[in-house]
Write a structure and sequence with these properties.
Blueprint lengths: L1 H36 L2 H25 L1
Helix pairs in contact: 1-2
Length: 65
C-alpha cells in the first residue's frame, strides 16, 4: 500500500510541473516589470515567490530521479 501511495504522489507531482513552470514565467514577468518601475517592494515580493517556486520545482525534479 505504501508503494502505491508513493506512486500516486509522484504522479501528482509530475502533473504540477507545467503549472509551476507557468507560475515561474509569470513571476519573471512581474519581476521585470517591477525592475522597470524601480518598485523595490514588488521586486522583493517577486524574488521571494520565485525562490519558493524554484524550491518546489527542485523537489519535484529530485523525486523523478
Amino acid at each position: 500500500m505504501k508503494y502505491v501511495m508513493e506512486t500516486i504522489r509522484r504522479k501528482e507531482q509530475q502533473e504540477k510541473l507545467p503549472v509551476i513552470r507557468m507560475e515561474i514565467d509569470y513571476e519573471l514577468m512581474c519581476l521585470y516589470d517591477a525592475m522597470q518601475e524601480k518598485d523595490k517592494v514588488k521586486i522583493i515580493k517577486a524574488k521571494e515567490k520565485l525562490k519558493h517556486l524554484s524550491k518546489q520545482l527542485y523537489q519535484i525534479e529530485e523525486m523523478k530521479e
